[in-house]
Design brief:
This protein is mostly helical. It has one domain: Four Helix Bundle (Hemerythrin (Met), subunit A), CATH 1.20.120. It has four helices and no strands. Helix 2 runs antiparallel to helix 3 and helix 2 packs parallel to helix 4. The longest helix is centred in the middle third of the chain and has 30 residues.
C-alpha cells in the first residue's frame, strides 16, 4: 500500500481545509483581501494556515526521505501523528492561542524524527 503517498495527500488536503477556513473567516469577519489583519478570529485562522504551511516545508521532504530508507509503515505512522497534531493545533489555536502547545508538539516532534531518519538513512549510504 502506498502509505507515504496517502499521508502526503492527506497533509495537502488538511492544508486545503485550513485555506478554506481562512477564506470563510475572511468573509465572516469582513477582512478584505489583501489584508491579513483585522478581526482576531480571522487572524487566528490565518496563523493556523501559515504555521501549517511553514511546517509542511519541513515535513513533506522529511517524510519522503525517511520513507526511502525506513519502513513506510513507521514513517506513515509518524506522518499520521503530524496530521493529528495539526488538527489539535488548529482547534486549540482558534479557541485560545496559548493552548496550542500540545498540537505543536505533535506536529514538530514527528517532523524532527523523520528528518533524523532521513539523515541517518542517507549517511548509511555514504
Amino acid at each position: 500500500m502506498p502509505f507515504t503517498e496517502i499521508i502526503t495527500l492527506l497533509a495537502l488536503l488538511e492544508y486545503l481545509v485550513f485555506v478554506i477556513l481562512v477564506g470563510k473567516a475572511r468573509g465572516q469577519y469582513g477582512v478584505k483581501a489583501p489584508a491579513v489583519t483585522g478581526h482576531e478570529l480571522f487572524e487566528r485562522a490565518y496563523r493556523v494556515q501559515m504555521n501549517t504551511l511553514e511546517l509542511l516545508v519541513l515535513f513533506l521532504p522529511a517524510l519522503w526521505l525517511a520513507s526511502r530508507y525506513f519502513s513506510t509503515m513507521w514513517t506513515a505512522g509518524l506522518g499520521a501523528l503530524f496530521l493529528i497534531g495539526r488538527i489539535l493545533y488548529a482547534r486549540s489555536y482558534v479557541r485560545d492561542p496559548a493552548s496550542r502547545s500540545a498540537g505543536f508538539g505533535l506536529s514538530i516532534l514527528p517532523t524532527l524524527v523523520l528528518l533524523g531518519m532521513g539523515f541517518a538513512g542517507a549517511l548509511q549510504l555514504v
